[in-house]
Design a protein that fits this description.
Length: about 375
Amino acid sequence: MTPKQKEAYDLHLSGMSGVDIGRKLNINESSVRVRIRGAKKHASADSAIQNAMSSVGMSDANPLHSGWIKSDSASLYFQMPVEDGQKVSEIVRESFEGIPACPPIPSATEFTDGLLTIYPIFDAHIGMRASADESGKDVNNEIAERVITNGIGQCIAASPTSEQAIVLIGGDALHANDQTAQTPQSKHVLDVASSFEDALDIAIKTFAFCIEMAASKHGKVTVGVIGGNHDRDSYLAIMYALRERYRDSSFIDVQKKSGDFFVMEWGKVMICAHHGDKAKAERLVMHMANEWPELWGRTKFRFYFTGHMHHLKQQDIGGVQVEQLRAATARDAYASSHGYSSRPELQAITYHKDNGEISRVRVSLFN
């Protein structure tokens, strides 16, 4: 392994956190993780591979995938083991490192009782790479962060000062589930803009900024985080990291619920959400009535939000208004090559406890 990798690895083995290692070595956390990953790859390699690397002056195992080891008596082809991806527990642990409690936020002192405003953010796909030549729009981590925070900021500015707000992160917040850059189920290869760790850092930062903007305008903020088909496991890292950041807040509540569904009651209003990748709208409505019958019976206005397909679709099904929302990102090269259209958008929808929906704000993205 390289001297820099060994330096970081030794500190890691001593029990030092990634944040502290970065401070000591004057590098960012992403660089710390890359060095430690390279050190682990070298340390776990067969001694014959280590010796072969040394013989040709190679110390960094990161770029090494396969090759031949030859001697006077034998020739051996080797292939480095492919990592299955970082465990969710490790992703969550690393996402916590160095997260300070949120500094005091001045909450709204005047707001309208009885109103709730929801800010649904579906299919943000942070970590995706797209170029204007291939798909019509440039997309990377920095662009995604700027577009989403600006869009939510416009939604918040145009919405009433409601008593209650919901920031709903509705699945596929991250483009990739881990550093393999493949979809978890089908193993479809993804175009990524950065390492998985960097995308996770940007995602947490982006959603925290959106939450804190909402908290400065509304009386209370509930945060819901559900998974999608791209971030089947890694959504947990976002959820727990945000919960840790707002651990001391009296008016920001990050729901600690792993799973596919979000549900909330607001007077006579029932709000549910699912990413939309595992069941059609009709089945989701049936599940809604069966799973929460008491809540269903107490409410008059019922709304269900999904995403996944990236385009808008609204329908009334069995007393429920089901909305398939547009994505919060532009299309990538895959979507463009398959003829999928894209009209990225964010919304803010306000409900009254007794009267249902009373106002809606739409903000187009990537204009």
